[in-house]
Amino acid sequence: MLGLLRRITQEVTAAQSLSSALDIIVRRVRRAMRAEVCSIYLVDSNTSEYVLMATRGLNADMAGSVSLKSDEGLVSLVGRRAEPVNLEDAHIHPSFHYLKGTGEERYRSFLGVPIIHHRQVLGVLVVQHEEKRRFDEGEEAFLITLSAQLAGVIAHAEATGAITNLNANATPRGADFRYKGVPGSSGVAIGRGVVVFPPADLDVIPDRETTNPEQEIDDFYQALDAVRRDIRDASNRISQHLSVDEKALFDVYLKILDDNSIAGEVVKKIKEGQWAQGALRQVIKAHILQFDRMDDPYLRERASDLRDLGRRILSHLQEKAPNIVERFSEPAIIIGEELTASMLGEIPIDKIKGLVSVMGSGNSHVAILARAMGIPTVMGALDLPYAQLDKADLIVDGYQGQVFTYPSEALIDNYQQIVDEERLLEEEYESLKDLPCETLDGQRLSLFVNTGLSADVARSLDRGAEGIGLYRTEVPFMVRDRFPTEAEQVVIYRQQLEGFAPAPVTVRTLDIGGDKALPYFPIAEANPFLGWRGIRVTLDHLEIFMAQIRAMIKASAELHNLKIMLPMISNVAEVEEALALIRRAYAEVKEEGYDVKMPKVGVMIEIPAAVYQAKSLAKMVDFLSVGSNDLTQYLLAVDRNNPRVADLYNSFHPSVLHALASIVDQVKDEGVGLSVCGEMAGDPMGAILLMAMGYDVLSMSSTSLPKVKAVIRNLSLSQSQDMLNEVMSLSHAETVVQTMTRLMREANIERLIRPSKTTRVG
């Protein structure tokens, strides 16, 4: 059964159209189950009707032209229940409805299972027999398993462009296709899409029309010649260490390259209008599928040879292609299967209008970076056919987490009004730059910024930041190909400390592991978020920790505004050990003659263990800072980078709110500073609740700071406390957000954080 499932899903993945994919499914399922009929009905998103899209056994001419209403027939019953319906005699069931012209009147037994993707019923898969008999449990289990597999395969194939819409050849201008993701960074972007992708990865190469097929063909043949040279050179270098049979493997590679069928197929697709990289992807993946279907293990292994050759050819093609900077003649919306910080680093900031990532969530590091730069972003748009959107007109709605492709003029006009309102809000924020963050009744709240790059300093000061609540030292570690020296680190930290002096600068010790990796210090673990990360790494490597602490203290010479923060603390023993090492480093730096003071030291509260030990930790250090991102992740057991569970990640979950309030309650008499440096602090709704709880410092991205200040200055502390009291009794995160939205609207402050029209569009 597993082998059959694998072969069917592989064939569906390789299909070039929706109709051919559905035909593969009904043909293979009918044969596998020895059924007389197999049909697929898909839900029409506009009418909610179940349309017969493909069939073997019924009248195939009726496919696409007949349908069942959402409350009509056994198929819709399967959809409404979202569970299988297995009947010995379908005709006597009260929900039975005969579709004229299909020829199904003679079929009695019926088994229908729903095709579900992300809790949404996409359609129903049906098998039927003439005779009256109930399908057995094994047959039902097979169909359920298959439908679960196919739901994901079809959705992924649509997103990657492997399966296109039935009307893919039509120009969809003005179609207003909408795709749902999750908000990554608020704002609206209107513009053309540019698809970006990592190098030498065939799977993510998008479709793209070529205007110069002759040049593409020439580049392809040059890439073929380069790979042939590479293989011959490799063979010559190690030939003395190989037997005759082993050397023959290189000859196999060369024969594949000389095979006119593969090269000819690529050239044919280029002549049809596809660019060389896209043509190569299509041909290589089609041949890989053929190898994967073979029963012989040796022949199946040849698929890996072909994949390797495809990557080699692609690598040489990409050397000839224009670099990423040259592709941006004007600002564009960047689209990718999984956008990364390194990808963004290659693109001039002034050329980025918006970001859309198929993978990732609203708290992925790319989303955090986008918020810091003020770029409208949508993450986790899993069903977006991104490979087809190069140069397509798009709208990115970072407020609602929506992407519109091929928008109509009317929709563009609506969203342009939001852009205009955003510009007016920015002008209003500018007037607040030099004013204190103070409530209407005189409560003072300090607004700090989170930084990671040297460029963040000027941007943060321009926004009125009062200090740095979190400097991420892993950023300068991540952009190098080795550990920075102590002297290099002194220069880096000095920029941050000097830029904000005499205001405090909180420098976090190296926080790697989890989803933050150093290319020269790989950490491979089955469960990295519960593994070797943060303080656990640096305490195990004193040479890294001590060099970093000494560099921080040296950088603070004569400025005396350094605060050191320890990440991922789970017990007091870690703090005791770290404090002893910091005192040792301080003594060493003093002996070298530097004019320094012992810095204040604090810990991050970001795992449940630290929440329950907040009082004990407060007795040991000068301040506590809550990392709301990881705290939410660990409390809810939700990977914040996983789009499949992105809707479960919510910092307004009652358990998160109660944990945050508990920390304040535990340490209120300990005389320590208390701040929040996670993304919740930069959310005006979160800032209101955190201030009401008793947090006195909020640290956020520089782009979030003006919004938070605007809200706090138009609210009294007593109002915020009333809001907090109302939501702390609620048991659903969604209810908390809805209630806070209503209360902010009643207080006339919602208008300060988002254009009014965003509630009426999309």
From TrEMBL:
Reaction catalysis annotation: L-histidyl-[protein] + phosphoenolpyruvate = N(pros)-phospho-L-histidyl-[protein] + pyruvate
Cofactor(s) listed: Mg(2+)
The keyword Magnesium is annotated on this UniProt entry: yes
Ranges where the GAF domain occurs: 17-164
GO biological-process terms attached to the record: phosphoenolpyruvate-dependent sugar phosphotransferase system
Coiled coil (UniProt feature): none
Cellular localization per UniProt: Cytoplasm
GO annotations of cellular component type: cytoplasm
InterPro entries per UniProt: GAF (IPR003018), GAF-like_dom_sf (IPR029016), PEP-util_enz_mobile_dom (IPR008279), PEP-utilizing_PTS_enzyme (IPR050499), PEP_util_C (IPR000121), PEP_util_CS (IPR023151), Phosphohistidine_dom_sf (IPR036637), PTS_EI-like (IPR006318)
Entry's EC annotation: 2.7.3.9
Keywords noted in UniProt: Cytoplasm, Kinase, Magnesium, Metal-binding, Phosphotransferase system, Sugar transport, Transferase, Transport
Endpoints of the signal sequence: none
Keyword Transferase applies: yes
Single GO MF descriptor: metal ion binding
A Pfam cross-reference name: PEP-utilizers_C
Family: Belongs to the PEP-utilizing enzyme family.
Name of this chain's protein: phosphoenolpyruvate--protein phosphotransferase
Species in which this protein is naturally found: Marinomonas posidonica (strain CECT 7376 / NCIMB 14433 / IVIA-Po-181)
